[in-house]
């Protein structure tokens, strides 16, 4: 029986890579995106995860799908700027998408997973949290919230055999860092335990394992790719 995963932010970047790799490895994939891109190889639906009503509607439509197994909260935004220089609207957008949107999706998926008797939830954090990177305070705050939510939600879902974990990569070549100077990226990379830039493949390898049944004993954890 083919199992289904839901991937947010599936129209580009890490979300699109994860969705595409999952599809290639035999998963049934439902992608969610604010602005779906036509002709994607997997099903993709329009969903603004900042809207809890729309999120509830999307996941509610999956109630009768007995194959739903996992959620990958890959949607995210960033703005590298000093806190005092960051517009209020940008602060709100980062928190709304990175933290609240992920919580809305995890909450809605969690209800499905409880009915199914198990499942996997994978959130995305960043090494900007433990490294406390200058110019990324708002972004780091949103992801620190994700790590705290991951630990506590894992405790809430443990009795239902639903694992909840976070994956925290450093800079990866996506639109998220396209405008960041190379020298800044290199300074971040040099602070990692393995001073090499992570790849989308690194992220998928960890995500794939956490989605698997072999990861049933791992929950409430944040895995920092390349180490910090």
Strand content: 15-25%
Number of domains: 1
Query: Roughly what percent helix?
Result: 40-55%
The multimeric state of the shown protein is single chain
Q: How large is the radius of gyration?
A: 17 Å
Side-by-side strand order of the widest sheet? 3-2-1-4-5-6-7
Number of helices: 7
Largest sheet: 7 strands, parallel
CATH superfamily: NAD(P)-binding Rossmann-like Domain
How many DSSP-defined strands? 7
Distance between the termini: 39 Å
CATH topology: Rossmann fold
Return the structural class: alpha/beta
**Unreliable residue stretches:** none
How does CATH name the architecture? 3-Layer(aba) Sandwich
From N to C, what is the helix and strand string?
EHEEHEHEHHEHHE
Mean pLDDT rating:
95
Class in CATH? Alpha Beta
What shape does the CA trace take?
globular
Question: Summed up, what is this model?
Answer:
The protein is an alpha/beta fold.
Structure description:
The mean pLDDT is 95. The protein has a seven-stranded parallel β-sheet with strand order 3-2-1-4-5-6-7, with helices on both faces. It is α/β, with parallel strands linked by helices and 228 residues long. Helix 1 links the parallel strand 1 and strand 2. The longest helix is centred in the middle third of the chain and has 29 residues, at 88-116. It has helices at 13-24, 52-60, 88-116, 128-131, 137-157, 182-189, 200-211; strands at residues 4-8, 28-33, 43-46, 68-73, 119-124, 162-168, 222-224.
